[in-house]
């Protein structure tokens, strides 16, 4: 087992403000950034605030920015850095700080409430649901989401534009709309709810300009842009421009003098 | 005088994992105004870690399955110590609880004819686990979370307030259940963000706080698993049951050290993975105990055929119940046939194509790649036992989930005892959460509707506030809570771990007493805002209480059964079958921190109902039941 001293710069502070503080801390073989934060708590700063739960990349609690990149601390191995490097750990930038590495992520819980829930099909009893594996797989990909909110943090629509937040659900919740829209048995349409139109009109799908930043930071490897947002945009457009109307328009334009 | 915010609710649910959320949904749907309080963010509970699936005898893959077979498997797995009525209700109701999840939007993996697919698991006679790849727990939590949001959307339409009838207090902790006389009157809580105290007044409280794994060094459990509900029940006067039974999951990661203990799902074995020692031998064939001899394959060839043709072959011994596999691994490592980092090898790479591994076991592939830099499609994993689950817990009424002797206090999920006997089968946890979470919510709402509102006294609030603030007033030479926690974990791991001896457990009790004395002086720095050192100092009380229960009960039970293995009493004793060990709080609590807090009481289990006994062959019952039970 090899051990060395690493240099860390960690943001400490609260709603009033704060600053980066320097720490030197021991690192052992095979450790991740969260281990180092825990060692700091146990040996140097017992009140260093950090969220974490499973420490296995499954719960999405320990989100922070490591060297400026949105990451799960439990999935960021120390071996990916050189020993000389000073590693910075800062709170998620798109959300207000509560204390140290803990931010107020209530924005996400508000947005979750704005997406209408799954509408069960009328007249299909529990136990009688039949769906083909290939039909559920698209939505299953999106349900891998661990709600770490790294995509919400990195998305440039809101990252430096607080003013966009009221009108924009963010990649995670636009993906939730896509997930429900692709659910083989969701009966929203029958209940008079057009999820595609809602994505456009209520959740700010139009603000997304598919730069794929969300996909890049997703620790679950979900292809948020390609598999959720772009298809949702295409469907929303199909809805806004009915193909027959489109064809009609085209013919008229051609025949016009 | 301490001034705290007080709110009135009908039902307070402590914990937002599978059991807590299911209880809250039920209570709210029955008309109770329901508050859920949880230590983490909403949707992060430890349930997300469950991988394999939900056991329910839907019979989608093998029509031979039904509740009777599931009941039998559960009783066998628990070595007949299960509270049989719970095992019966669980087996009967599990399918409905799974189907209900579909109506709330869950998307399970499918069979070719479009029904919910079911997979094999240790101890289950038929493919029985509804699953979503190997992230079933996440699907369960998300579905329940989204159901709660849906109920809140309904309330918003009706009352203009999402939280009118169902509110989640996230990142808050309960430190005391409050009572008026014998009856529950509410819960004393603090908010992690601000450190502010508040009181939720309610006639009914459901404890759904999960397990105790954080008292052990090597564990698959998250930081939340500090035995809070167990301790809250004890402090409120409700006894715990069979706390000596702690499940060590056979396959936790052993390398690198920082992830030691993190779970490797049993599905790896259910889908064909095999265990080998350093000599390359599939050693599990040497460890099939007598009670299971007829049910398991005797050769590798037969075991391998079972995956394709389960009706004409017996299952491989890698799929024995977890206690058996964990002990076997422990023995191999002890005999010097372990892997380089002190485990054994679990191999899927030579058993199926890489593509299939990535599809069937995506999170395992991901976990080993990211955390250990191991490609499980190309090489074997190193695994060893890790503290995973506590079968013991709060003693409850099987039907209503009500605790013993404290009207208004209910418990469901891992924090409740009885359901799993001495050992839990994989997949029976998620179904337990749903079946008994629902029952707890149902009965708590019913009780709350007729119980009136017991008063919360200012004196109790003062006492709870003083207790919670004590770590800020520690004198010179205060103890570091992190150091105390590490010493507690080492004590429990080394002295009351997977293999137990009387002398070591007696020593553990002495060390726990010494730790209690030091914990009374635990001190913290900083202020009350989101201060993890303070939170840990408060959690220590709970871990120490629960650890004492485990050590005392384990010392008392002079046999080996399920999740309780004694080197000095290696065999299962039929005379112990009908014996439950109850941990009762010493009342009044002694002022001297060195004095024990727990008194053990032996009780006899209720005789198993004849029609349920009739589901087993006589020859099998003879192996388990005590002499006098057979005559009855």
Automatic annotation (TrEMBL), chain A:
Residues 6-93 form the 2Fe-2S ferredoxin-type domain. The keyword rRNA processing does not apply. SUPFAM superfamilies: 2Fe-2S ferredoxin-like, alpha-helical ferredoxin. PROSITE patterns: 2FE2S_FER_1, 2FE2S_FER_2. Pathway: Carbohydrate metabolism; tricarboxylic acid cycle. Gene3D superfamilies: 3.10.20.30, Alpha-helical ferredoxin. Its cofactor is [3Fe-4S] cluster; [4Fe-4S] cluster; [2Fe-2S] cluster. It comes from the Bacteria. Keywords: 2Fe-2S, 4Fe-4S, Iron, Iron-sulfur, Metal-binding, Oxidoreductase. Pfam families: Fer2_3 (PF13085), Fer4_8 (PF13183). NCBIfam families: dhsB, PRK12386.1. Belongs to the succinate dehydrogenase/fumarate reductase iron-sulfur protein family. This is Succinate dehydrogenase/fumarate reductase iron-sulfur subunit.
From TrEMBL, chain B:
It holds the Pfam family Succ_DH_flav_C. Residues 300-319 are annotated as: Disordered. Signal peptide: none annotated. Keywords: Flavoprotein, Oxidoreductase. The keyword Oxidoreductase applies. Residues 10-430 form the FAD-dependent oxidoreductase 2 FAD-binding domain. Residues 485-572 form the Fumarate reductase/succinate dehydrogenase flavoprotein-like C-terminal domain. PANTHER family: SUCCINATE DEHYDROGENASE 2 FLAVOPROTEIN SUBUNIT (PTHR11632), SUCCINATE DEHYDROGENASE [UBIQUINONE] FLAVOPROTEIN SUBUNIT, MITOCHONDRIAL (PTHR11632:SF51). NCBIfam families: PRK07803.1 (NF005866). This is Fumarate reductase/succinate dehydrogenase flavoprotein subunit. It comes from Streptomyces goshikiensis.
């Amino acid at each position: 087992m090899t051990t060395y001293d690493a240099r860390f710069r960690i943001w400490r502070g609260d709603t009033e403000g704060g600053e980066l503080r320097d720490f030197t801390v021991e690192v052992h073989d095979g450790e991740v950034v969260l281990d180092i934060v825990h060692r700091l708590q146990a040996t140097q700063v017992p009140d260093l605030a950090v969220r974490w739960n499973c420490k296995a990349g499954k719960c999405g609690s320990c989100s922070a920015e490591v060297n400026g990149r949105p990451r799960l601390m439990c999935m960021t191995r120390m071996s990916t850095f050189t020993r000389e490097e000073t590693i910075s750990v800062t709170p998620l930038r798109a959300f207000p700080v509560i204390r140290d590495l803990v931010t107020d992520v209530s924005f996400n819980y508000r947005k979750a409430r704005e997406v209408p829930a799954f509408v069960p099909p009328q007249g299909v009893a529990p136990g009688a649901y039949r769906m083909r594996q290939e039909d559920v797989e698209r939505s299953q990909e999106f349900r891998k989401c661990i709600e770490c909110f790294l995509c919400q943090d990195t998305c440039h629509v809101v990252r430096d534009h607080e003013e966009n937040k009221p009108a924009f659900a963010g990649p995670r919740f636009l993906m939730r709309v896509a997930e429900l829209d692709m659910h083989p048995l969701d009966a929203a349409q029958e209940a008079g709810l057009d999820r595609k139109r809602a994505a456009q009109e209520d959740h700010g799908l139009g603000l997304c300009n598919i730069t794929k930043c969300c996909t890049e930071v997703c620790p679950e490897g979900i292809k948020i842009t390609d598999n959720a947002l772009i298809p949702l945009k295409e469907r929303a457009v199909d809805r806004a421009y009915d193909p027959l109307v489109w064809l009609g328009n085209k013919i008229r334009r051609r025949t016009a003098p | 005088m301490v001034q705290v915010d007080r709110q009135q609710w009908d039902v307070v649910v402590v914990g937002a994992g599978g059991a807590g959320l299911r209880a809250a949904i039920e209570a709210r749907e029955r008309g109770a105004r329901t508050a859920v309080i949880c230590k983490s963010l909403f949707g992060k509970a430890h349930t997300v870690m469950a991988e394999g699936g939900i056991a329910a005898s839907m019979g989608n893959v093998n029509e031979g399955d039904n509740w009777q077979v599931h009941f039998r498997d559960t009783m066998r797995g628990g070595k007949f110590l299960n509270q049989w009525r719970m095992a019966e209700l669980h087996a009967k109701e599990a399918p409905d609880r799974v189907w209900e999840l579909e109506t709330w939007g869950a998307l399970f993996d499918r069979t070719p004819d479009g029904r919910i697919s079911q997979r094999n698991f240790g101890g289950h006679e038929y493919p029985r686990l509804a699953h979503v790849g190997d992230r079933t727990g996440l699907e369960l939590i998300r579905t329940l979370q989204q159901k709660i949001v849906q109920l809140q959307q309904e309330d918003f339409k009706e009352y203009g307030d999402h939280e009118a009838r169902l509110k989640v207090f996230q990142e808050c902790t309960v430190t005391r259940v409050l009572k008026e006389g014998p009856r529950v009157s509410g819960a004393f809580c603090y908010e992690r963000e601000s450190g502010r105290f508040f009181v939720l007044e309610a006639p009914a409280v459901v404890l759904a706080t999960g397990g105790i794994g954080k008292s052990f060094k090597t564990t698959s459990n998250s930081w939340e698993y500090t035995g809070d509900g167990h301790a809250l029940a004890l402090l409120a006067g409700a006894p715990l049951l069979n706390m000596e039974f702690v499940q060590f999951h056979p396959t936790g990661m052993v390398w690198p050290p920082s992830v030691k203990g993190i779970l490797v799902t049993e599905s790896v074995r259910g889908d064909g993975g095999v265990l080998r020692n350093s000599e390359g031998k599939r050693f599990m064939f040497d460890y099939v105990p007598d009670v299971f001899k007829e049910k398991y394959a005797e050769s590798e060839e037969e075991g391998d055929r079972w995956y394709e043709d389960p009706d004409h072959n017996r299952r491989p011994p890698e799929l024995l119940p977890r206690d058996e596999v964990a002990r076997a691994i422990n023995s191999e490592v002890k005999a010097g046939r372990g892997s380089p980092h002190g485990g054994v090898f679990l191999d899927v790479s030579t058993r199926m194509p890489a593509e299939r591994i990535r599809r069937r076991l995506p999170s395992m592939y991901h976990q080993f790649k990211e955390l250990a830099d191991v490609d499980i499609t190309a090489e074997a994993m190193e695994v060893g036992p890790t503290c995973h689950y506590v079968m013991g817990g709060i003693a409850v009424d099987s039907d209503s989930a009500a605790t013993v002797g404290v009207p208004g206090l209910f418990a469901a999920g891992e924090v409740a005892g009885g359901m799993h006997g001495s050992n839990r089968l994989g997949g029976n946890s998620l179904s337990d959460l749903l079946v008994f979470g629902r029952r707890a919510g149902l009965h708590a709402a019913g009780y709350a509707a007729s119980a009136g509102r017991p008063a919360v006294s200012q004196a109790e609030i003062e006492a709870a506030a003083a207790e919670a603030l004590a770590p800020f007033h520690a004198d010179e030479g205060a103890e570091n809570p992190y150091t105390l926690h590490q010493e507690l974990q080492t004590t429990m791991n080394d002295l009351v771990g997977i293999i137990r001896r009387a002398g070591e457990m007696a020593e553990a009790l002495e060390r726990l007493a010494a730790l209690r004395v030091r914990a009374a002086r635990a001190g913290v720095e900083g202020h009350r805002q989101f201060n993890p050192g303070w939170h840990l100092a408060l959690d220590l009380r709970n871990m120490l209480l629960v650890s004492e229960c485990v050590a005392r009960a384990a010392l008392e039970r002079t046999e080996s059964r399920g999740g309780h293995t004694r080197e000095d009493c290696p065999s299962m004793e039929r005379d112990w079958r009908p014996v439950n060990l109850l941990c009762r709080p010493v009342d009044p609590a002694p002022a001297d921190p060195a004095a024990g807090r727990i008194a053990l009481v032996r009780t006899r289990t209720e005789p198993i109902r004849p029609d349920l006994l009739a589901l087993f062959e006589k020859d099998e019952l003879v192996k388990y039941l005590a002499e006098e039970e057979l005559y009855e």
